[in-house]
Amino acid sequence: MPYVPEAHEAFKIYFPASEIRSWVRSAAEYHGIPHVLLAVIIQQENWPKAGTLLKIAQFVERTLTTISAITDELIFDLFPDRVSASSSGLANMSRATLRNAVKYIEFNYNKPPMPPEVQYRIFDYNQDTRIPGDDWKADLYYCAAHLRELIDRVTGQLCHNAKVDKVQLRDIISAYNGSGKDARKYGRDAIALLERADKGTDYLYFYEK
Hints:
mainly alpha; 9 helices
């Protein structure tokens, strides 16, 4: 009999904040990255303080991208790559970045991007589709996998498991966004958010010990 520990999830339309935060923590632990790093990235990509119209526009854009990517898998090249392969999902990752991160983890860490209890949790259906936005919980594991890759790259050490300093942390976060001026600002903004949260003047919405 297939192991389906969370089949009931298929019928849920609302997930409490604490449950989503537990997903973030589990994904970070699985890939051996700082929990707070994954939390701040998800917050940067899903800014809770954004206005309603911006949130709706972002949701629609990412949903359409995900739908086109899923359709592209079924009917090859139905949509141009600038649509189907662009950034989407909870972690706002492109298809190429996501799949490269998965390959990195499989080759260097000899494990899948997510554990079986996540991969087959809904009626034993494989949630590891490697399509951003197809499954929100899977998105977190893909994001954590990419951050694992970036930590190794910035520190110059495979399987780096020591602390990273503030400069390295900023560079890792910047690299998640890309390169150039906007990416550097993205990194600085994330560090500023972490500092405010540490002082109690701001809040990490996706972090819970």
